Structure formats: C-alpha cells, structure tokens
C-alpha cells in the first residue's frame, strides 16, 4: 500500500517495490513504474496502485460426478500481474488520495474471475467420470487440466493477469459417501485380518498338536525304555539269583562232600576202633571205659558197687588170670 503525505495543496506518494504506480492527469498517463516516489496535486491527479507480486487464492469447488455423487475439490491458485497498465485500464485500482487505500476491491474481482474459470473446468472434469474413477485417479489429472485451462485462458490474458501455479490439496466425496466407499475396503481388510488371526490360531493349534505328539512320543519312548530296563533288571536279578543258587549249591555240595569225608573217616575210625575193641577181653574194655569215664569226671564223690557187678568183675579177672599167667 502506498504512503501519502499531504502538505497543503500538494502531496507526496511513496510506494513499495512490489506495487506498480500509474499517475493519470487529464486522462493521460503521466508516470508509470514500480516503487515510485513523487509529488503531485490531488486536485488534478488520479493514481492507480497495481500489486505486481505473486499472490495466491483459495480454490473450493463442489461438483457432481457422472453418477451424481458429490465431490469436493480444494486447493490454491497462484497468479500475478504481467501487464499493470492493461490491468489498471480494465479493473479499477484507484487509490484514495487521502488514505492511500484502494477505493474498490479489484483483487477480489481478479480472484473471482480466476475462480470462475477454474471452477468451470473442474466441474466439467468431475462430471465426465464416475466417482470411482475420480477417486482412483486422484487430484493430479484435475490439476493438470486446471493448469492447462488457466495458463491458456484468454479471459486472463486480456486483463494482463497470468496464473503461475495450481496446487490441489484434496479431492474427496462427502463424508457419508466416503464411509460407504471405505466399507468394502475396510471389510476386505477386516476379512484379511480375521484370516490372519485364524491362520495364526490354526498354526498355534498345529504347533500345540505337534508339541503334544512330541510329548506323547517322548512318553512312549520313555515307557518302552522303562519296559526294557525292567526286563533287563529282571534278567539281571534272575542271573544273580541263579549265580547265588549255583554258588550255594556248590558250597552245599562242597560241605556235603566235606561232611561225607569227615563222617566217612570218623566211621572208618570207629570201625577200626570197634575192631580193636572187638578183640579185647571184657575186663580190658571195662577198664578202658572206666578210665574214659574217670577222664571226663572232675570229682567222684562216691561209687556204688553192687554184688552182681563185683561178682562179674571177679569172674572176669579170674578167667583172665590163667591166660596171662600161662608161660609161653
């Protein structure tokens, strides 16, 4: 915005470098340029201030697709002035010489023209395709269409304005239609998620089954090995019992043989002793028996000799004396 300073009947205008100033006097251009500073008489001057910097406007279009579905397009359009004097001759950019502000709203008029051209092109594009094709293609094809239309628009060139950029930030249906369109995809994704969940559960069940089978196989193998171990222990016990029985049998046989030999020797000695005693006289045997008995007795307190025993002893002595006294 230009800065004005009034001093009596004259005034000074100071403009920025981003503004193109055009001073008219008597309907003719007296001064024209960017960033001018000059003195003038307000009574005889008319000044226009045309911004020549790049500007952006918001684009919002609500249209219908070929299948009668509402589609919203949002974005921005960049533009600038390429011929300030031509624009000033077509659009009023007059400056209030007291305040320095524009008297009208020329920027809104230019943006309205830009928006009308862009909206018409966008509506034609949206109406030519169904909603599915529009959403699948995205905003890029529409952006290319708008660039081509705006860059080559005669309605802009004839007022000295040119579009420099088109950016689209959104191309979307209404919220209800968007939810309806999202439902099949959401259901498909949910179905895939459910399938993944089922597959994971099936895999977990399969792994649990494999673990159970492995545990069962391990238990079966352990039982088989335990059976083999029990059989082996039983066989070892039988072998040990057989060995012990055999050893005991050998010991018993050896003991029986020893007893047999001892008893045989004892019987043979007894037989020899009996043979010796058999040939001895009764008196000698009686004397030996008495000596044997005396050897076994510690003390003899008394002895009873009956008449029969004494008669028998005397008879035996009498019978034995002649034999012993007989000369050889």
Tell me what the structure shows.
The protein has helices spanning 84-90, 106-127, 131-137, 140-151, 154-157, 175-279, 282-296, 307-325; strands spanning 3-7, 10-14, 19-25, 28-34, 37-40, 46-51, 55-64, 70-81, 161-173. A hairpin with a 2-residue loop joins strand 1 and strand 2 (10-14). Helices cover 58% and strands 21% of the residues. It has three domains: 52-173, Band 7 domain (Tetrahydropterin Synthase, Chain A); 175-279; 282-295 and 306-328, no CATH class. With 328 residues, the protein is of the alpha+beta class. The chain has eight helices and nine strands. It is rod-shaped and about 215 Å long. Strands 1-2-5 form a three-stranded antiparallel β-sheet, with no helix packed on it.
| Strand ordering within the main sheet | 1-2-5
CATH homology superfamily of the largest domain: Band 7 domain
Helix content: 55-70%
Radius of gyration: 73 Å
Q: pLDDT average, as an integer?
A: 86
């Amino acid at each position: 915005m230009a800065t004005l300073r009034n001093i009596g009947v004259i005034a000074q205008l100071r403009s920025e470098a981003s503004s193109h100033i055009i001073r008219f006097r008597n309907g003719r251009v007296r001064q024209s340029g960017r960033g001018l500073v000059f003195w003038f008489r307000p009574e005889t001057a008319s000044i226009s201030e045309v911004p020549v910097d790049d500007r952006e406007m918001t684009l919002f279009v609500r249209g219908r697709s070929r299948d009668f579905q509402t589609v919203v397009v949002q974005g921005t359009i960049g533009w600038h002035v390429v011929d300030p004097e031509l624009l000033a001759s077509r659009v009023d950019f007059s400056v209030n010489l007291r305040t320095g502000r524009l008297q009208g709203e020329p920027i809104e008029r230019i943006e309205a023209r830009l928006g009308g051209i862009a909206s018409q092109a966008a509506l034609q594009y949206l109406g030519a395709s169904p909603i599915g094709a529009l959403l699948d293609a995205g905003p890029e094809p529409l952006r290319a269409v708008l660039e081509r239309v705006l860059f080559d628009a005669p309605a802009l060139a004839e007022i000295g304005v040119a579009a420099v950029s088109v950016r689209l930030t959104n191309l979307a249906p209404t919220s209800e239609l968007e939810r309806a369109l999202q439902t099949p995809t959401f259901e498909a994704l949910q179905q895939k998620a459910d399938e993944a969940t089922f597959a994971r559960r099936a895999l977990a069940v399969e792994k649990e089954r494999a673990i159970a089978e492995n545990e069962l196989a391990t238990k079966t193998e352990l039982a088989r090995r335990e059976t083999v171990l029990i059989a082996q222990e039983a066989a070892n016990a039988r072998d040990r019992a057989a060995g012990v029985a055999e050893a005991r049998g050998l010991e018993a046989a050896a003991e029986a043989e020893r007893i047999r030999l001892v008893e045989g020797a004892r019987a043979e000695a007894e037989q020899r002793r009996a043979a010796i005693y058999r040939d001895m006289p009764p008196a000698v045997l009686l004397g030996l028996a008495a000596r044997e008995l005396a050897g076994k007795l510690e003390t003899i307190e008394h002895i009873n000799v009956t008449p029969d025993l004494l008669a028998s002893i005397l008879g035996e002595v009498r019978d034995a004396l002649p034999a012993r006294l007989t000369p050889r």
